[in-house]
Amino acid sequence: MLEALLTDDDRRFRAEVRAFARDAVAPELRRRVADGAELSKQDYVEWQKLLSQRGWLTTTWTEHDGGVNWSPVRHYLFEEELALADCPPVGLTLGVGAKLLGPILCEHGSAEQKQRLLPPIRDCSVWWCQGYSEPGAGSDLASLATRAVRDGDDYVLTGTKIWTSYAHWADGMCCLARTDRDPETRPQAGISFLLVDMHAPGVTVRPIPTINRRHFFNQVFFDAVRVPVGNRIGAENDGWRIAKSLLLHERLAAARVAETTKRLKLARAIARVALFHGKPLLEHDWFRMQLAALEIQARAIEQTALRYLGETMAGTPPGPEIALLKLRGTELYQKIYDLLCDAIGEESIPLKRLKTGDADIPGYWQTLNANRLYARGFTVAAGSSEVQREILAKSLLGGQRAS
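-> structure tokens emitted (403 positions)
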């Protein structure tokens, strides 16, 4: 189906991206990405600088502000080729500046804000994090309680954000805060979109250790932090609409089509060498049936994503039904990691020490379970599976539009 959407120029573009991905990433970095090893901030910054030099870091920005005029299918091809080539990811979590704040500034920012904030994103000198979720407002984001009270030319920010990915690396935060508590209005109507200096007095970042022994989550506390009014994007109390403007793109990316394809290929490769009762797993019907079932689900998700892509190119962007991709894509990704860990058995246990002399054991054997544990959060982040089902029920079955 993808080939039917491509023009000859699209195919040349895909070849250009494929060649860039092949040549730009150092072999050692590519190996660590393929193995699922933890990367440093410097790894990500250096990779994003390479993309920026090519003009490919800010692809979702308007042309006037430094973006590219790519069709939706070219965006799809670009992200697919980079993922399949084991390039470091630049998703929303690891590219908040380029992927979230940049497009929002392009659409909603003032001329002064664009001039001040876009160049440091483009040259990768400023790292941003996303401050949406709170201890009592995760999937139900409209119930957030972090408060911003106007005091002259500043807001005074008090409250906390949680599950803030890479806040310990960040220079700034895209923060949703309540600026109106009128009980007569919908809770979404009293939220503003603020940019917070993570080095300002009163900001405290507390690490949240994860079960796979990696550090990416944090809780961030605001104790009367002063935020200039000039760091508010859009009008006061209009932050909910601004924050929602990128949800459709995020949910299309959440299908994880390329990453799923990579993991299924890895499952087949492992199954050719991993033995069960003296025979490779791939020679056992019970394993082949499990793998085939996942491959069928993956193809169904891919075809659904491409259908939505085709509709977008025809001028009909998908509505709330795109929540299907986030729902099914993240659940499938978890199932694949379960199968991968089952395939290598006890070698997937994080604390197991491989015997001396087993240097030929692939690196991913030692990281699969860590990544499996990390993937458990995919059905919660960016709207839990329960929320996606509610969106689908209200919008498609109930005839309502989800807020």
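Residues 128-239 form a domain with the Butyryl-CoA Dehydrogenase, subunit A; domain 2 fold (CATH 2.40.110.10).
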